[in-house]
Amino acid sequence: MSALSGARLLTAGSAWRLTGLRATGRALVSAITGSDPDDRVLAGILLTRAGDRSVPLIADAIAAGANPADLIDVLASIGSDAARAALQATTRSTRPDVATAARQALHTLDQLRRNPD
């Protein structure tokens, strides 16, 4: 990740959390599905920190066919009722790999709920 790329993502993350401006949220979703692993990690952290505000954008990206692995991980990291609902909806995906990943994320969240230590 370049310094410029990191600064752009941090700016987008702040704007997303403070204003909910969809363009900034979409920039983070785009980064998390991009090729730079450092950008993906930072975007995932920023989307997670924004919490439920991020859930609809992530769900839309998954439904639109974006590579779901990191997006499903972010939903699991958010872990809220809205994120769980999005994961539950994703289990009905026609793409078996997506449905399986969503089921696994829900299973992990259920395990954490039962054993919070």
List keywords for this structure.
78% helix, mainly alpha, 117 residues, single chain, Leucine-rich Repeat Variant
Average of per-residue pLDDT values: 93
Proportion of beta-strand residues: under 5%
- CATH A-level architecture: Alpha Horseshoe
CATH fold field value: Leucine-rich Repeat Variant
What structural class is derived from the secondary structure elements?
mainly alpha
Tally of structural domains: 1
Shape: globular
Proportion of helical residues: over 70%
- The total beta strand count reads 0
First and last CA, distance: 34 Å
Largest sheet descriptor = none
CATH class, named Mainly Alpha
What's the helix count?
7
Evaluate the radius of gyration: 14 Å
Low-confidence blocks of residues: none
> SSE order, as H and E?
HHHHHHH
Molecular structure report:
- The protein has 117 residues and is mainly α.
- It has a single domain, classed as Leucine-rich Repeat Variant (Alpha Horseshoe), CATH 1.25.10.
- The protein is built from 7 helices and no strands.
- Helix 3 runs parallel beside helix 5.
- The radius of gyration is 14 Å and the shape is globular.
- The model has no long low-confidence stretch (mean pLDDT 93).
Can you describe this structure in just a few lines?
By secondary structure, the protein is mostly helical. 78% of the residues lie in helices and 0% in strands. The chain has a single domain, classed as Leucine-rich Repeat Variant (Alpha Horseshoe).
SSE blueprint:
Blueprint: H1 3-19, H2 22-32, H3 37-50, H4 55-63, H5 68-78, H6 81-90, H7 96-114
